[in-house]
Amino acid sequence: MTSRQKDLARIVSALEVAGNVYRSRSDGSLRVERKSGGDPVTDAERDVNQLLFEMLVGPGEGWLSEESVDNTERLDCSRVWLVDPLDGTKEYISGIPEWCISIALLEEGKLVAGGVLNPVTGELFYGSGGAGIVYRNGSASNPETDVLLSQPPLVLGSRSEFGRGEWERFRDLPVRLQPMGSVAYKLARVAARKADATWTLVPKHEWDVAAGVALLLAAGGYVVRSDGLAPVFNQRDPLFPGLIGFSGSSIERFRPFVEGVTRQPAFRDCLPWANVLNHLSLRL
């Protein structure tokens, strides 16, 4: 087993153990609190956060997680774990099966491995650069088919952004829109060819997107920040202005949409469509 295979095995094992923790918790025993900014947090995800730290972090390795106080010593580490023990807390509390556990490994500034698990659906995504990704569907019913067989392209958007009406501007464009919870889950589904693209119109933290970005890049996809820059991880300020990603397999199908958007002034300041179009031209 290579060192990278060991990293992936470590990620998968941690995801599976953490998933069992969530499955063992009943709604009645769940305690929900509010963070200083008003976002909800549960005792379950705090327990999982500690579990993941103990299972993943080795000597000299850094750690960045939504549920841990940030330690800037990570900035000097060659290997850093970027973790969200529960991405999609609102969906988790509401019983909507669109939340996940998200783990990514950064080595010498590059995302080298990632994994995402949805404990409700049993979907497990994991992979590393150069080796592609693995998608396992633990559901015994309703097997999914490859989304690329259908038209038009499927775009996953934030359930919260849909609720605020921020996606109405895309309604008349030649794509299918589907609201969904966790951003890590959305990115993983795009990487696994269950959707063509996803983007967020609001800022996201590194721990929200690192595993999904790792999977998407491993699958040959494309990711860019909403300011047009490539995402760089393990920064002192771990907040991104926003993110857009699409499957490498969907490039040709997605091109007419991007070309249409770039011709409409109303969309030019929304996301870096010109950057995406330039990338499409290079890839085709």
Describe the protein's architecture and organization.
The chain has 284 residues and is α+β, with helices and mostly antiparallel strands. It has two domains: 3-137, 2-Layer Sandwich (Fructose-1,6-Bisphosphatase, Chain A, domain 1), CATH 3.30.540; 147-283, D-Maltodextrin-Binding Protein, domain 2 (3-Layer(aba) Sandwich), CATH 3.40.190. The chain has helices spanning 3-24, 43-56, 89-94, 159-163, 183-191, 206-218, 251-262, 273-283, and strands spanning 32-34, 40-42, 62-65, 79-87, 100-107, 110-118, 123-128, 132-137, 154-158, 176-180, 197-200, 204-205, 222-225, 239-240, 243-246. Strands 3-4-5-6-7-8 form a six-stranded mixed β-sheet, sandwiched between helices. Helix 1 (3-24) packs antiparallel against helix 2 (43-56), helix 5 packs parallel to helix 6 (206-218) and helix 7 packs antiparallel against helix 8 (273-283). The chain is globular. The mean pLDDT is 87.
